[in-house]
Amino acid sequence: xxxxxxxxxxxxxxxxxxxxxxxxxxxxxxxxxxxxxxxxxxxxxxxxxxxxxxxxxxxxxxxxxxxxxxxxxxxxxxxxxxxxxxxxxxxxxxxxxxxxxxxxxxxxxxxxxxxxxxxxxxxxxxxxxxxxxxxxxxxxxxxxxxxxxxxxxxxxxxxxxxxxxxxxxxxxxxxxxxxxxxxxxxxxxxxxxxxxxxxxxxxxxxxxxxxxxxxxxxxxxxxxxxxxxxxxxxxxxxxxxxxxxxxxxxxxxxxxxxxxxxxx
Length: 264
Description:
A hairpin with a 3-residue loop joins strand 4 (95-98) and strand 5. The longest helix is centred in the C-terminal third of the chain and has 37 residues, at 159-195. By secondary structure, the protein is mainly alpha-helical. The protein has helices at 2-14, 32-49, 56-71, 75-79, 116-131, 134-154, 159-195, 201-214, 228-251; strands at 17-19, 25-27, 84-88, 95-98, 102-106. The chain is built from 9 helices and 5 strands; from the N terminus they run H-E-E-H-H-H-E-E-E-H-H-H-H-H. 62% of the residues lie in helices and 8% in strands. The N and C termini lie far apart (59 Å). It has one domain (14-251).
């Protein structure tokens, strides 16, 4: 067992070390171009497999919110990738963003995100995942986990030991990192939406909506997402800074006016 963990420790710290936008240490194994290529491929597949909305009002509304969020990015982040938005016709209250700047919004989200500010909170959160390189980090974690199990097999570990390593790596690596990534995307997203001129207080209202609509939940320590209460508490702690950013954005002329049925 000591040999297995020594191998994992050595691999982790010898390859791909980098830092997230919140100064959290990350290990990434793949290049940005590789991840962008994979994101593009997954996005195109989804566009062929999931119906795209035919409601031009929904498309214009979501595009308007996305345009403000994208405009608030740093120039290098805004201009280095081809940002693209698709509204999928699905009752899921969800959205995503993939490496390479590909954003998807399920129109079921519009039943939970009641206004432009709440929609911006979700979209900025998802863009936050891209800015923090989370897809690369998750893929790298999976690869390292597979290496650890393979190393244990080579060293003759028993089935019981292999199961312990597999379960332990999920609890000690995959799940905690996923919760950390979600919290990090919240922190990046609320500042991004505020910098775009949206009301950051509405991010709290959004997660209150989500919590009321969510039903029974697993214990937080076994979940890949923070609990709604933890999430809302963390957002409240960031409101003073976020509100100041919004006022600065408004002073610069960033005053979002996206409403259903109207383009920007």
